[in-house]
Specification:
This protein is mainly α. The chain folds into two domains: 209 residues, Rhomboid-like fold, CATH 1.20.1540.10; 61 residues, no CATH class. Helix content is 62%, strand content 5%. It is built from twelve helices and four strands; from the N terminus they run ααβααααβαββααααα. The strands form two sheets. It has a two-stranded antiparallel ribbon. A two-stranded antiparallel sheet has the order 3-4.
């Protein structure tokens, strides 16, 4: 038929392209930042200060955690400082440039697991050092640091170009960027954050770093090595199948038709084969087994 030919068939409907996890996170985080600004303008706090509704319910702090606002260990990553756009801009640029490399590599689900694990462990690390404090933390820095640490572990020698202070281009290998940021975060945690003079949660950054390293070594690399070295499992056949196979092998006799001078032997062999089909090979006595052996030798000639 003419319409059965390939060039006459209707083309299949294109599959709807799924929205990437990076785009979803960007849209959600930027939208919440806009909402923060709208609340500050439309419903300012006392004395014209910023509206604290989102901070009170979704920012990370020891007070919120003690009040069982458990969701804040992840929700804080969608909030950012409203006093400057640089906080949001830095995190979203990191999410965009690193995320578009890692998401195709990991897949959407694993990418989101890495991202939110970084936020979660970053939050818990911050609370470990500030459980009795009264400050709050917002921002996706810990989650982005998890992506950055994973990227640096995955591509340690691949040169990348950064915009220092969003202006000066700087080309560096990821391995040196990793060690530089790790060393600075440890230094800043000890000498500024714990001293109360820092406005950046370096402890949360270190938590994100830890997640990126552990995910690369024990999830990403562990999964790959397991796939390469895993052996095919041995399958043990059930007993009933073994017995069936054994019985079939025992009863699969092929006997050539005897000549006219061997009619009696033929009848005896037929009787023995019928007995085997009915009761199995084990029901034969020694004489019947000997008859089969003799018939095999005679009839195979």
């Amino acid at each position: 038929m003419l319409y059965d030919r390939p060039y006459m068939r209707q083309a299949p409907e294109p599959v709807a392209k799924q929205i990437s996890a990076v785009r979803i996170l960007l849209i959600a985080t930027i939208s919440i930042f806009v909402l923060q600004q709208v609340l500050n303008v439309s419903f300012p706090g006392i004395g014209g200060r910023q509206n604290l509704f989102l901070t009170d319910w979704f920012a990370l702090s020891a007070e919120n955690f003690k009040e069982l606002k458990i969701w804040t260990v992840c929700s804080y990553a969608f909030l950012h400082s409203t006093t400057t756009i640089l906080h949001l801009l830095g995190n979203m640029l990191g999410l965009f440039f690193i995320g578009r490399i890692l998401e195709p590599l990991l897949g959407k689900q694993q990418f989101l697991i890495l991202y939110f694990s970084g936020a979660l462990v970053g939050a818990l690390t911050y609370l470990l050092f500030h459980f009795n404090g009264n400050s709050s933390v917002v921002g996706a820095s810990a989650a982005v640091f998890a992506l950055l640490a994973f990227f640096c572990q995955r591509h340690p020698e691949q040169p990348i170009t950064l915009l220092l202070f969003f202006v000066i281009p700087l080309t560096v290998k990821p391995k040196w960027l990793f060690w530089g940021l790790l060393g600075y975060s440890i230094y800043a945690l000890i000498f500024t954050e714990l001293g109360g003079s820092a406005h950046v949660a370096h402890s949360a950054h270190l938590g994100g770093f830890l997640v990126g390293v552990l995910y690369f070594r024990y999830v990403y690399n562990g999964k790959s090595s397991f796939a390469e070295t895993s052996k095919r499992p041995n399958i043990e056949m059930p007993e009933w199948f073994k017995r069936r196979k054994k019985t079939a092998a025992q009863t699969s006799y092929q006997v050539n038709r005897p000549t006219a001078g061997n009619q009696d032997l033929q009848k005896e062999v037929d009787r023995i084969l019928d007995k085997i089909n009915a009761s199995g090979f084990g029901s034969l006595n020694s004489k019947e087994k000997a008859t089969l052996d003799r018939a095999k030798d005679i009839l195979s000639k």
